[in-house]
Amino acid sequence: DRQLGVARQMLESGEVESARSLATAVLKAAEERGDRPAQGHALLALSQFDRVLGRFRRVIDTAHRASQLFQLDGDIAGEASALSLLSHANSYLGRDEESVEAALLSVKLGDLLPPGRLQVHLYNYLGVAYLWANSFASAESALGAAERLALDDGSPTNALLPRINLAWLEAMRLFTERYYSGSLPSTDALRRRLAECSALFDSDEPFPGLPGVRAVLQRFGRCTQVLLLCWSGDLGAAEAKLAEPRAGSRPAHYAQVANFFDHWVASELHMGRQDLQAARHEATVLLEKAGQAEFEQMAYIGHLLLTQLYRRQGQYELALDEGRAHRRRELRVKADILDSRHKVVQTQLDIRRSEHHLRQLVRHSHELERLSYEDSLTLLPNRRRFEAQLNPCLGDGWDADRPVCLAIIDLDDFKRVNDTYSHAAGDEVLKGVAQSIRDSVRDGDLPARLGGDEFVILFQHTGIETALQVCERVRANVAKLRWPHLSATLAVSASVGVAEARSDDTPAALLRRSDLSMFEAKTGS
Description:
This protein is mainly alpha-helical. It has 24 helices and four strands. The protein has a four-stranded antiparallel sheet with strand order 2-3-1-4, sandwiched between helices.
């Protein structure tokens, strides 16, 4: 605990890598001693540090491991904290369903504990999960609950956390409404929200239990202030605010997730000055950088900005792919999915509440692990499950007498289905294709969804000839699928590529060769 406390102080002072190194040393020592509670707390600290650094995939890994350890020890507070970090990282990666599910679970676990600071954090990150999912009413409700809990607890400092997110929520609501309606609503609510969290900028005192978060939120708040000034027409003040020193003495890589927001507000500033070329440049940089960092939610904003700018310049062909109607439909489908995930979480919580379940955490953790390996749309195994089963088959696990093959299946021109029939219809097609693949493979084969319209099949103890035969059956069965309730003419085809593992293959190398084989099948070369 003492060493992790020192690591958190290092993080607050900007010594991010040193803080992470110390926490890693604590984790290693705990593993050597077999000290499971210490391992959980070290993993939790590492998750907090990686969140500040914007390393979201690593956050998901460490937070998931921490939540499992806390669950095994019956540490409800630790598990809830780890799940909130898991939720936050999934939000940035655009995994709205997983984010909301983890946040809901963390809040319900927190409700089993005496009221305090932890519940403020848990409700706050539930609000953040809903915010990035564009479920603004649910976000406002959760963030409002966090604010009330902080004030009831006599912690006005902790109330700043949900208050700055309420301001950010209002900015996102205004931005979204402008995109869909073409005009900006009143900024009065945003101005009021920013005034309520003005104390955030007056001190560098850390938020208790959230190392490094104040610096990130100060950056978010500064960018929100610039947006308000831009949208209010005070462009000179907006430019001056944008030019203020960033993050004080922090290193350049500190809180890098906040860096992307500068490109957004710079684009808004140029838009206000009618310099649409410069605004497009900033939006393009935002989109590129956010895409590289897998900050999917900010990349989404970049797409919307570019769409607006193309329309203003009369370049409707360039704006077509980001069409308003399909975006609205996409958001509606996403909201429906979020509602269904809430029911899944409630079922899990009903089990957890029983005293018997708390005594049998190990047994129930296996069911939670199964859910983490399942694709929520198609119910096929997901990429994580696929990678977990593929990795042991390669490298030291490769055996010439037990061949392994990998097939990649890609639907041909699937974008046409979404564009012609809607994203909701596209989801129906994906579910039908997934079921067809499941019905076409043999016992022992592992079909999985990689993402989008891309599927894989892992063949173990199977040579290339047999794998090719199964894949031809998959391809033929997909071609027979029809969806008469959607359209009498709706049909899809699939391109399939197969590769057999070699002794020196890595997972990436085998995937590349399978992908190349699929591309050759698609192009006929």
